[in-house]
Each structure stands twice: as structure tokens, then as C-alpha cells.
Design a protein that fits this description.
The structure is a homotrimer of 366-residue chains. With 366 residues, the first copy, chain A, is of the alpha/beta class. In chain A, 19% of the residues lie in helices and 27% in strands. The longest helix of chain A has 34 residues. Chains A and C meet through strand 3, helix 4 and helix 6 of A and strand 20, helix 5, strand 21 and helix 6 of C.
């Protein structure tokens, strides 16, 4: 499965320079790519002059517009306009998914009522429940379990150990990384009499008395619905809704160890970075970006195009388009000012005490 | 497995109104439930007048005391006093656990010395170790592993991919969601000479010199003991103790991606929300509620009935009954005031600088 | 598999006192160890006088230098200089790993091209891919999957449900706890035109306009390289690099639920505590200790010997040797002062308003 430099350029809609017939066997950093040899090369990613300084003479390289392949002594080059975008095209062409299982492994336990469309692959020890439907060309890894009645779209890639519970629906080209859990029960409990948390929410922090109560479970009858082109990271957890579905819109990408509570609705084309947590019943707009470790309280709304820096804790609704940071979340520029002022606060407090004394002396003089 | 509206009302200890013979096939939001048809209905959850506005005429609904089923045009209704509590009863009655495996799947690897009590079910590819005991009616999902000598109580529900290590003891009605890990080794290391962390703890942040040292492992010989009615979320991790057991009291519910360190002792009827982390050897009282992403340092004590808002970092002991927020944790009302003051701090700092100048001028006049 | 008290003392390079022939069957807290009986005992961990107060007469105990075994009424004792260090030796000697699988279980699916060196054990339902190499005496648990071409060093211990993707390289004595994922794809996306996040980074929080764009995936062609003596906790996730490898240096220990992004490079002998997250392409020096829940932004550098308290969010480079705390991270002593000043800020703000009035009155008098 190799591709020539010319094919690479054409597939990436980029300009070719030099030996288009070079067979590209992989990609490498400039210092490690070496020169092309025997008509083969690893393509060096040298999209800035600083990176290009490490290129070996005779290398094949991906370079940016404005760089001179002849001056760099290259054997061949693909010349791109937006380097980061070019990375998407290049890496897609060179990715072989680590040689994942083809066909249906004989050890898999597949319910007779399950429907696997054309070209679907199932790895060793996978368990596919009753009435499950797996789309064409979908690949299900080893040790995956998919519960009763779930529907997985075409060309899905479900990695090893993923748990998809019953009644989950996913669109086309779903990617789920290893050991993620989709459709676990929501965390929803109630006490016979109002609990301390309910009292605090109603009474602004005041509690009348504290009684011993046990938690009764609110079972999760809802499901999870994922759009098209959703990607879900390793060890992510997405709970099913109580009555309706927890939903993730098309094009949304979810990083490792993100937790999404029951009834949450997430819009389209969002990015949720590592270890984000979204509590039950909150709603996230379209194109929202939440940096690593952001937290979102339950039952709130985060508007379209909101961007939150890493570690932001969102306790209340956020209007569309806002850029936020901190705990509790505030506008990023406000937070930066607050942080500066806080760093100076110990000194200011000392100066303030001095000023109080000075003013007291002035008053005594008066 | 359907139930009539009358049976539902009776099971929930609630009032029935209208056609008790309607067969209830599920639950739905008011806008989606539709009217009863052919003697069947999905019951609409319409426990506030606002929700009830979306009801179709002829629907079956769960409504709150004080609402008028005739005026809402219902075919039948169950009328409840505390709606959130009613959700527990209703959803329990309608939950079928997604059609989980009955009986013992032939692919499971069960040590001959393991004891499965009456009605216990074991899913495909489960691995049950030597001397394990599984209680009556317990259900063990696909791909679960249970290590040597562990004891799981009656009516447990252990979801797919859960890892229960050796020597773990759990009471009745344990629920563990997919891919959780119970009984992993504690994170406990020591250097031959005192480490930087030990120096800082002893010397308040001062370090004499920094030496290169390797970490030696303190192995975990202890176990994990879980009470009755414990629920553990997806991808949770609970480490075993070093010598004694890490313990979780009866009735405590643990949400997804919570991390509980070695030797931790958690009381009864606690709620630990998503992504909470509790470091080694800390003790949590009874009925403690920790919101999402709360962190608890090692070797501290959180008293009974403490409630912590989401994202609270607890570095020191917390007295019983306190409601806390922030990082470091402070009383919730104090934290709210601190947050307000901090937001105004940049402006106050500017005003303070002005005031300093003014006072300087006043002094010069003097 | 028992050991005598004398053998224990010798193995731990510690002093023996009393009956060296006692057979030690395990370890226990002083109150639970009881007296030796029939030549057998559980060794009590009584390394401070306070703990020793709970010892039964006739017990076998681990005590610290300076304590008197005769006065404590012991049958036998091992006397150690640095008790915490002694715990490493003692627990290692008494750990039997919960009776893990020996040999190769017949249900495992092992590619014919995989090489298992002498004494390697493989548990039930494990899946070992093409060209995998497993070192001598390594133990692979049930339900583990190891992808094509990965190399695991000698004496590794890979617990149940661990996912090691293709092309991962690990040194000797690797320990990985249950359900961890090593080598998942990085979280790396690009939009056709610059995205909101790129605009903010370039323009300090200002966004010109917001356009609808879809995320294109940058595939991960790189790998993961782990040194010797690395330990990785339960449900950890470590992403593979984009082109080069994500690396973890020898002797580094990683606690449960830690997330390590693509291209991250971690030095030697670090401790990363529970729920730490490190974003893509950041570099962590040697002997760095990150407390629970610390976050590290992408593309930054944390110097050698840095120690960060729990919950620290690191947004910018940190010089070597610094001890930090807070969000954003500041020197620990500065953070402690800031926290104190912030607690007093609401009162100071009220006093400041008073002082403003006072000065205004003084000026009016003038």
C-alpha cells in the first residue's frame, strides 16, 4: 500500500516539484526522513524554514508555498498553501489503521437477528446483540460489545473494547476509540423527601435540618443518538437519556476521557478536548470548543461558537460567541485582568493597610 | 413485558384517573407520547403545567397533584405527589436492562472452584476466577473479569467489560457500569531517601537540594469492600488498599470516571458525581455529595453531610454539614462573595492607585 | 508461598529480632494482625509508637529503629530504618498478583507471526496481533488486545482489558493496570480556513467573524515509546504521536485516569497522579511530580524537578525546580498568599469603599 509523490500531490490538491515517481512509504520529521533511496522515501514534514533546516539532501518533503525545493536540495516536494490543512490530507492517505481485522472473526458472538451490511468487519470476541444493524464497510474491533437494537452507520470504525449499549443510534463514519462507553445509565437519584442538594438550590445555601435518606434510582429509559462524522475518544463515557435521547450533532469531535451526562444535547462541529465533563441535561450549541478539563454544570446552555480555555468551569448559561476562561467562567480578557490583579493583591493589601493608617493620621491632624 | 396504567399507579402508590386498562409500552416526553391507540400508550411525563401543554388529546400521562386530567383531555393518568420521586418508581417498572443475557453463556471461562448461586447469569467471554462467589440472580455482562476469591452479592448487575480484581467483596444489589475497574493497585511509591514531595510537606515549600532517585513500588496487599446498594459508573477506578481495604458504604452512588485512591473510606448514602477524584487514604463521611470534578487531597477527612459544588478542590479537613465551593474549598456563601469581589478587583485596583495619589497630594498640602 | 520472618528481614536488609522461623502469611494493621499461632503470623505494620499501641502480645511486627520489641511483647520483629521504604520491600515480597494466569490460555487469539519469549503468559480471550513481540516472563491478562508490531519488554504485567494499539514499544518491567489504552489516535483536527481557536491565539481573544466549518482529521501515524520500569494506571489513555512518537521515560509512574495527548514527551522518574491531563505536544522534564487533577496546556514545557500541587493548571512554561500551585499555576508560596488575600478581599473591598468616602470628605474639607 504505497503511493507515489505525484499521486500524493494530486490527492492533496497541491503542487508537485521534482521526482513524482518516488514511492512514499510513510511520513517522518525532517531530521529522521533521510534521502530517497531505491525510488522510495519517507516524506519529511518541513513546512517552515526552521524545520527544513534538518532535511537531508535528496529527501522528499512536504513544504509550504514560498519555500524553494531546489535550494533545499530536495529530490521531490509537495508544495502546500495551508500546512496544517495539508497534514489532514497527507496523514489520511498514509494511515492504514494499524492493520485492523478484515471480515468476520469466527470467535465473534453475533445474534442471528443482527444485520451486518456489505463489507462490515467484526474482530475477535466481539459480541453483537439482537436486532443490531451495522452499516456497510464498518469495522468493529476485538472485544467490542454492541447492545440490542443499536444501529451503527456505514464506514464506522469502532476500536477494541468499546461498549455500545442497547438502543444507540449512530450516523455514518463514526469513529470510537478503545474502551469508550456509549449508552451507560444516567446518574440520577432521588430521595423520598427533598435532599440537601434540593434545599440548597431552593434556599441559596441554607439547610433547615439534615435527615438520613437513601437514594432511589431513576432508571434510564432513553437512548443516545450520534450524528454523522462523530469521533469519540478513548475511555469516553456518554450516558443515555432518562426518557429522550442524549444527542451529539454531526461533525462533533470528542477527545479522550470526556464525560457526557444523561439528556445532554451537543450541537454540530464542536470540539470537546480531553477530560471535559458535561453534567446532565445541559445543552451545548454548534461549533463550541471546550478546552481540556472544562466542566459544565447541569441544566445550563452554552451558546453557539463559544470557546472556553482549558480548565474553565461553566456554572451558568453562556451567550453565543463568547470566549471564556476560569472558574467560574468569565470573558477571557476579564479573566486575564482578574488574574493579574489577584497576583498583585497581596502587595496591594499591604499598601492598603498603610494607606488606611496614613488617612487616619491625616484625619487626626485635621 | 407490558404493564397496565392501573398496575403502574398501584406499584407507584399513586392515584389512578381514567382508563386503567391501558397497556403502557414505555415512557415519552409529552410532545412525543401521542394519544393512546388500540388500548396501548406510551406514558407522557407531564408533571408541570408547562410540560402538559404539549400533551396530545387522548394521551396517558403522569401528572402532579393539583393538575386536572379531564381539562388536559387525557385518556388516563397517574397522579403523583412528588414528581421526581415518581420518576424513580416509573422508570424502574419500565426498565428491561436492554435485554441482558440470561443463563450462562457457553463461551464464559469459569473456574471450577467458583460458586454461582441460583439464577446467576454470565455473559459471553466473561472470565470468573478461582473461589469467586456470585450471588443469586446476579447478572455478569459480556467481557467481564472477576479475580480470584472475589464475592459479589445477590442481584448484582455488572455491565460489559468491568474489571473486578481479586479479593474484592461487594454486598447485595451492586450495579457497576461498563469498563469500570475495581481493585486496581494503589499508586504508592517511595524513594530510598526522602523525596522532593516529602521535603515540601515537612518544610513548607523549601527544598534543600534535588537528587536523582528512582521510585520503588509499594505493592497493594489490601482489598476493596463495597456495601449493599452501591452503584458505580462507567470507567470508574477504585484502587485496593495497601494493607487494609478501600471501602465504600452502603447506598453510595458513584458516577462515571470517578477515581478513588487506595485506602480511601467512603461512608453511606454518598453521591460522588462525574470525574470526582479522591486521593489515597482520605475519609469521606456519610451522605456527602461531591459535585462533578471535585478533588479531595490525600489523608484528609470530609465530614458527614458535606455538600461540595462542582469543581471544588478540597485540600484540608471539612467539618460535618458544611456546604463548600471553589479551589481551595471555602463555604459556599464566602466563595460567592470572593468571586464577586475578584470580578471587581481590576477596577478597584485602578481606583486604589488613584486614591493613593489623592492621599499623597493631601499629605503634600498638609 | 510463605516466607519466614528471618527471610523477610534478610530480603529487606533489615534487623531481625526474636523468632526468625515464624512463617509470614500476609501483612495486617496492628489491631488486626493478632498473635502468632502454630508458628504462623500475619506481620503487623507498627512503625510508629501510636500504631504499636494496638499490637497483640505475641505478634510479629515491622517496627522502626528506636522502638523496643521486648517492651511491646512481640514474638518477633523486623526493625527498619526508613519505614515507608520498608513498605516497598515488604509488600513486594508478599504480593502474589492475585493468582494471575500461568501459561497461554487456549482461548487466546495469537497471530502466528507473534513472538512470545520464554515464560510469557497470556490470559483468556487475549488478542495478540501480527509481528507482536512479548518479552520473557511477561504476563498478559484476560481480554487484553495488542496491535500489530508492538513490542512489550520482559517481565511486563499487563492487566485485564488493556488496549495496546499497533506499533507501540515498551521496555522491561512495564506494568499497565486494567482497561488502560496505549496508542489511541491523537485529537488533532483542522478546518479548511483558520478556526476560531487559531484566531484567538493569533489575535489575543478577538475574532473577526465566525464561519461555519467542518473539522478535518489529522490522522496519527506516529507511535508510543515507553521506557523501562514504567507503570500505567487503570483507565489511563496515552495517544500516539502524529508523525513521531509520544514518549514516557524510564521509571515514570502514571496513576489512574491520566490522559496524555499526542506527541507529548515525558521524562524519567516522574509521578503523574490521578486524573492529570497533558495536552498535545507538551514536554515534561525528569522527576516532575504532578498532583491529582493537574492540567498541562498543549505545546508547553515543564522543567525538571517541578512539583505541582493537586488541581494546578499549567498554561505556560515552568522553569526547572519550581514548586507550583493554583490555576493559573504560580509558585506555591505566592499562591498561598494570594489565597489568603482573596479570602480577605470582600472585607477589604468594604473598607476600601469607606476609605474612599473618608478621603473625599478630607478633600472637601481642604
Amino acid at each position: 500500500m504505497t503511493i507515489t509523490l505525484a499521486e500524493l500531490a494530486r490527492s492533496m490538491d497541491a503542487a508537485l516539484w521534482g521526482e513524482g515517481s518516488l514511492r512514499i512509504t510513510g511520513a517522518a520529521e525532517p531530521a529522521e526522513a533521510g534521502a530517497a533511496r531505491d525510488g522510495q522515501a519517507r516524506i519529511a514534514l518541513a513546512m517552515t524554514p526552521a524545520y527544513a533546516a534538518d532535511l537531508a539532501p535528496g529527501a522528499a518533503a512536504l513544504i509550504a508555498e514560498g519555500m524553494d525545493p531546489a535550494a533545499l536540495g530536495l529530490a521531490g516536494a509537495v508544495i502546500v498553501r495551508r500546512p496544517r490543512l495539508a497534514m489532514a490530507g497527507l496523514t489520511r492517505l498514509l494511515d492504514n489503521d494499524g492493520g485492523m481485522q478484515q471480515g468476520i472473526h469466527p470467535s465473534a458472538v453475533i445474534d442471528p437477528s443482527a444485520l451486518l451490511e456489505e463489507g462490515a468487519a467484526v474482530g475477535p470476541f466481539a459480541v453483537i446483540g439482537a436486532d443490531v444493524r451495522i452499516g456497510a464497510q464498518a469495522r468493529i474491533g476485538a472485544h467490542v460489545s454492541i447492545g440490542q437494537g443499536s444501529m451503527i452507520g456505514a464506514q464506522a470504525l469502532i476500536r477494541e473494547g468499546v461498549r455500545i449499549a442497547h438502543g444507540v443510534t449512530a450516523g455514518a463514519r463514526l469513529i470510537v476509540h478503545a474502551n469508550a462507553v456509549i449508552g451507560s445509565d444516567g446518574f440520577s437519584f432521588v430521595t423520598p423527601e427533598p435532599s440537601g442538594v434540593e434545599e440548597i438550590r431552593a434556599g441559596l445555601g441554607q439547610r433547615e435540618h439534615i435527615s438520613e435518606q437513601h437514594w432511589l434510582r431513576i432508571h434510564s429509559l432513553g437512548s443516545v443518538v450520534l450524528g454523522d462524522d462523530v469521533e469519540i475518544g478513548a475511555n469516553v463515557t456518554i450516558d443515555r437519556g432518562t426518557i429522550r435521547a442524549t444527542t451529539v450533532g454531526s461533525g462533533t469531535k470528542i477527545d479522550n476521557q470526556v464525560q457526557i451526562g444523561h439528556n445532554v444535547r451537543i450541537g454540530r462541529d464542536c470540539l470537546l478536548c480531553g477530560q471535559v465533563g458535561i453534567a446532565g441535561s445541559s445543552r451545548i450549541g454548534d461549533r463550541v470548543v471546550l478546552g481540556g478539563k472544562c466542566g459544565v454544570s447541569d441544566n445550563i446552555f452554552v451558546g453557539d461558537d463559544v470557546i472556553a480555555g482549558g480548565g474553565t468551569n461553566i456554572y451558568t448559561n453562556v451567550p453565543a460567541g463568547r470566549v471564556i476562561l476560569g472558574s467560574p467562567a468569565t470573558r477571557m480578557e476579564t479573566q486575564v485582568e482578574m488574574n493579574k490583579a489577584l497576583r498583585r493583591l497581596p502587595r496591594m493589601a499591604a499598601q492598603f493597610a498603610e494607606l488606611q493608617k496614613t488617612v487616619t493620621r491625616l484625619m487626626q491632624k485635621d
